[in-house]
Amino acid sequence: MAHKGKDKSQSEHPDEEPLIRRINADEIPPEVMPLGSGNYSTVYTGIFEGKSIAVKRCKNNNHFDAEYRFFQQVGRHRNIIELIAYCRTENVFILEKGQCSLMEKMKELTWKLTRRALKHIAKALIHIHAKGFVYMDLKPENAVLVLNEKRKKGKKREQEEEDGGQKMDTKLVDFGATTRKGSFANFRTKNYSDPKQRVACSTKDDVYSFGVVLLQLLKKCDENGVIDVIHEAKTNQTFVIDGDLKTSMDENVNGSSSRRQQQQNQDVKRSSSALLE
Ligand SMILES: Nc1ncnc2c1ncn2[C@@H]1O[C@H](COP(=O)(O)OP(=O)(O)O)[C@@H](O)[C@H]1O
Ligand SMILES: [Mg+2]
Asked: Where a domain ends, among 78, 96, 114?
C-alpha cells in the first residue's frame, strides 16, 4: 500500500529496484545556464515542474548506463545527489541542483566547513561501499555544494553564521566510473588513485582518493598541485598548513570548541599525513 508522502525510491521490498521516473525527449527542460562539464558530459541548469534542477547530458551510452545502474542499485542518500528523472533516448539525467562544485568553493572554505565537507563525502562513500560498490572517481570536481533548506532553524547558529547564512551540504555527483567491489577496474583517476592498486577495484581505491582530497582541501591546491601535496605528506614528518585555513584550524583546535571537536581536529591533522603512508 502506498503511503502519502512516501519516498518513491524506497520500495516496500528492499531488493526491488527503486522507481525512477522516465521522461520523453520533449519533456527535457531547455538550457538556462551552464553548471559544469567533464570528460563525459555537460551539465546545465533548468526548470523542471517549477523547480530549479540540473540537466546532465552524457556524451555516450556507456557512461549513461553506468550512472543509471548506480542510481537504480545504490538508492538514495543525503550526501548523494538525487536523481529526479531520466531520458534514455537522449542520455539525459534530471538531477537535484548543486550551487557549485567543491573545487570551485575550496579556497573560501574555513576549517569547520572543510571538515563538514569531508564528513559528508565519507558518509556517501560508506553508503556506496555498504551497497557493494566502489565510487572510483573521487575528486573535488565530483562533489557539489547543495543548499539545505531543511536544516533546523536555530539548531546550529554558529555554523550558519560561518556559511554566510547559507546551509550547505556536500553531495557526490558523477557515478559513471562506479564499479562493483572486486570487478575489473577499467578506470582510475590520475593523481587521485594509488599507483600500487591492482586491477580489481576495492574500497581501498576510494580510501586513497579520500586521503588525496583531504590533503588537497587542507592545502587548497588545484589538480596540478596534488602530486606535490602527496609527496610532502609521504616524505615529511610534518604536513604544513598555511594561510587562513591554518588560522581557523588553530582557533578551532585551541579555542572554545568542545573537547570532542578538539579531538576530531587533532585526528584530522594527524591522519592527513598518516593516510598516505
Ligand atoms: N547536480 C549538479 N549540480 C551542480 N553542478 C553539477 C551537478 N552535476 C554535475 N555538476 C557539475 O558538472 C561537472 C560535470 O559533471 P559530472 O557529473 O562530473 O560529469 P563528467 O562525467 O563529465 O565528469 C561537475 O564537475 C560539476 O562541476
Ligand atoms: Mg566528473
From this structure: 96
